[in-house]
Model the fold of this input.
Amino acid sequence: MKLSFSTKGWHGRSFDEFCTVAAELGYQGVEIHNIHGSMFTNRDGAFYDYTAAATLRRLYEQKITVSCVDALTDPSDAATADAAETEIRRCMEVATNLHIPFVRLRTASADEESAPAAIENTVAVIARVLPEAESRGVTLLMETSGLFCRSAVLRDVLDRFASDAFGALWQLSAAYFGGGEDAETVIKNLGAYV
Done:
């Protein structure tokens, strides 16, 4: 496992700055939070079509990887399921093109009454995008937050698919503060899925 940090909340920074910070602090990777940001959309962005190869070469030379792409969507919301599916597919495309192994997914929290429907909405979206993830060689990682801050709930969803292209991203603080679970409980429930 590579120690990485997320670009979430680091507004107005260039990708070169992220790489410099990673190298100076001894990180091996960077998690990209927003594929709709300037790194991907600006002509001089690090991952724009014609600059992507040079960016990948620079990362290789610095021994830094892009460990994950964050999908900015909530697959548990039935009202936005089509948009969620589109966003996840776009993230998988970026991940494939840039040799990034993982796409992070997360859901919002739900009250006890609406949680079962929200979980089923998530399952339906995953069922539609998982075959593409498998064919692309990209792994979708569901974060232990929101609906899935209790690891047994996430384990039950992961068991329904039993795919190497669908796993768990252990978000330590959300599992502890949101789910009230210590490390032993999370590992017992999720084990090799993490």
